[in-house]
Design brief:
Blueprint lengths: L2 H4 L15 H19 L5 H8 L3 H4 L1 H21 L4 H21 L3 H22 L3 H4 L5 H29 L2 H22 L11 H6 L4 H21 L2 H7 L5 H26 L3 H22 L3 H16 L1 H12 L4 H29 L2 H20 L9
């Protein structure tokens, strides 16, 4: 069966008119854009923040590490703590927290205060994603769920292609505090948009520790979590070092690294929507194709990426495949646990964020202790094991 036939909502008695709630999907996608931009913006501002607040660039990197780790904890914890709170109110509260956090970041007198504000950002990111990543099933008709999920995750690609570079440029042309202040203003815009278009979203099945634990007994959820861990860890172990790889392995001029990474992000956006369309015809087949493509493209870089042209082609292929990972695996989780979407999604978000940090950490150790080429071998091996797990996972009729 396909996603179209099998996707259900956690609130089956709640009407889901496709047209009237499309603006809500757009608002949530805007929120996703903002969240990813807020999480990754400090990458481009490390030098200026470090100089202004008298810390090293390595220490300034905590602005990225801290919210990622906090988000991983907050994703399952926030839904448990809020219990039966209406999810509309929860999303509004989390976006208000994001607005406040970036105000504090912009005004932070010391680095300690700035890091504390990034803890608040992490809570907002984890909590928001835990709810929003599976929200499409409650905003549109079942037939439109894959497309709506792709639109929501399209905000992630847009942040990588536009949000982070533009935010970095703003900080360079003016001041890093202005960049954080602008984020706060955008968060307020998202808050007002959600207030205007998001319908009431009763928590018909509040997330509890027991419900979270029960998800590990679901074979489809287990495979989804394992696949997410392998794919994201493998991807970030290699992609974290793609800039030196382009220069040292492919011989690309440093001037072209930025445009090539832009191309990767643009390919990812395209891959996101292509995967969203394919998922409507089959979840299992689409996710399997994504994992197999990554298992081939990443290690193949070591063979065919030895020149600028080959490196560019494989980078784009890699971006196209990885662009479908978020929407593909989120749809997998929705279909694997149609009566516990929020619980399964919160676990998925937690694993995703932890895997980002773990991948970068493991990749760094491998590059320092072995070779740059080794991380591409690890990325391909992780994707291959994930592909095998997906291939043997057709135990749930909803995943076909």
């Amino acid at each position: 069966m396909t996603t179209t036939n099998q996707t259900t909502t956690e609130a089956p008695d709640e009407p889901v008119p496709a047209r009237s709630r499309r603006p809500a999907v757009a608002a949530v996608a805007f929120g996703a854009f903002l969240l990813v931009t807020a999480e990754q913006l400090p990458i481009g501002l490390l030098t200026s923040v470090g100089s202004a607040l008298s810390v090293s660039e390595g220490t300034a990197g905590l602005m990225v590490t801290v919210p990622s780790l906090v988000a991983a904890v907050a994703a399952p914890l926030v839904p448990v703590l809020v219990g039966a709170m209406n999810r509309r109110l929860l999303l509004l509260g989390l976006m208000a927290l994001m607005t406040l956090a970036n105000v504090v970041s912009a005004l932070a007198p010391t680095f300690a205060v700035l890091v504390a504000s990034r803890v608040l950002v992490g809570i907002a990111i984890g909590g928001f994603w835990a709810i929003a990543s599976g929200l499409a099933v409650r905003l549109v008709a079942p037939a439109n769920v894959p497309r709506a999920t792709a639109i929501i995750f399209g905000g992630v690609g847009a942040a990588n292609v536009l949000g982070v570079p533009l935010g970095t440029l703003l900080g360079e042309l003016s001041d890093w505090r202005v960049a954080f202040g602008t984020l706060s203003a955008l968060a307020l815009v998202v808050l007002l948009a959600l207030l205007a278009v998001l319908p009431p979203l009763a928590a018909t099945r509040p997330v509890s520790p027991r419900l979270l634990g029960e998800q590990f007994g679901n074979p489809g959820v287990r495979v989804g979590i394992i696949t997410t861990f392998l794919i994201v860890t493998g991807h970030f172990s290699a992609y974290t070092f793609v800039s030196p790889a382009l220069q040292q392995l492919s011989g690309a001029d440093e001037r072209f690294v930025g445009p090539l990474l832009f191309g990767f992000g643009l390919a990812g956006m395209i891959g996101n929507f292509v995967a969203g369309a394919a998922l409507a015809r089959g979840t299992h087949r689409t996710v399997l194709l994504i994992t197999v493509t990554l298992a081939v493209a990443i290690p193949l870089y070591l063979v065919l990426g030895r020149g600028p042209a080959g490196g560019a082609v494989l980078l784009i292929a890699w971006g196209l495949a990885y662009g479908g990972v978020s929407v593909g695996l989120q749809t997998w989780m929705i279909n694997a646990a149609p009566q516990a979407v929020e619980a399964a999604s919160s676990l998925w978000v937690a694993v995703f964020n932890l895997s980002i940090g773990l991948g970068a950490l493991v990749g760094g150790v491998i590059v320092d202790q072995l070779t740059l080429q080794a991380v591409f071998g690890l990325g391909g091996a992780c994707a291959l094991v994930a592909a095998l797990a997906v291939r043997n996972a057709r135990t749930n009729e909803n995943l076909r």
